[in-house]
Write a structure and sequence with these properties.
Layout: H1 6-12, E1 15-24, H2 28-45, E2 49-58, E3 61-70, H3 74-78, E4 83-89, E5 100-111, H4 114-119, E6 130-134, E7 139-142, E8 147-149, H5 152-156, H6 161-170
Parallel strand pairs: 4-6
Antiparallel strand pairs: 1-3, 1-5, 2-3, 4-5, 6-7, 7-8
């Protein structure tokens, strides 16, 4: 079985497959649902076709959700989203505003035809990547590039271009 590098896989990709898994914290499932909504909104902004292919619903959100995105450059733009995403927030149901931290893992892989998928994909970069969504202050910080954005509602509606552009520039 031949292994493809990420660059070779991207060259053959016809789209992207995004997997979101709630990881740690009582707010992880609702946070995974918000991430799903964010990526669907991002795909919509870029006029890409996007659909949920698989989901496991849990605790007001998703334990796991798989999204298929098809469109020009969809994988090239979304590949930077792979990594851990952390939310800091006070649950609406909780009085006293105690801050909870939760994690979701996002994996973005290129989509291929059947013959390409059989060859497999080898991920080159295994370092931990974290983005923090601070619901109390309405900001998002990508720690890989030390970039903060103060428009959390816009980001959650799919306005990720500033973050993805900065990641793309840093990785060139």
């Amino acid at each position: 079985m031949n292994k493809l590098t990420t660059a070779q896989a991207a060259a053959e990709a016809s789209g992207a497959v995004i997997t979101i898994q709630s990881e740690v914290g009582i707010e992880a499932a609702p946070f995974a649902a918000e991430l799903c909504r964010m990526y669907l909104g991002y795909a919509n902004r870029h006029h890409w076709a996007a659909e949920i292919r698989h989901s496991i619903v849990s605790d007001g959100g998703y334990k796991e959700v798989v999204i298929h995105v098809a469109g020009p450059d969809s994988y090239d733009r979304l590949k930077y989203e792979t990594g851990s995403h952390r939310a800091q927030r006070a649950p609406m149901a909780e009085a006293g505003w105690r801050i909870h931290t939760c994690l979701a893992k996002v994996t973005v892989l290129p989509e291929h035809g059947q013959s390409s998928m059989r060859r497999g994909v080898q991920l080159e970069d295994r370092e931990v990547k974290i983005r923090t969504y601070n619901f109390l202050y309405g900001g998002v910080t990508d720690h890989r590039i030390k970039l903060g954005v103060q428009h959390l509602p816009r980001v959650l509606d799919g306005d990720l271009d500033a973050l993805i552009d900065a990641l793309e520039t840093t990785n060139q």
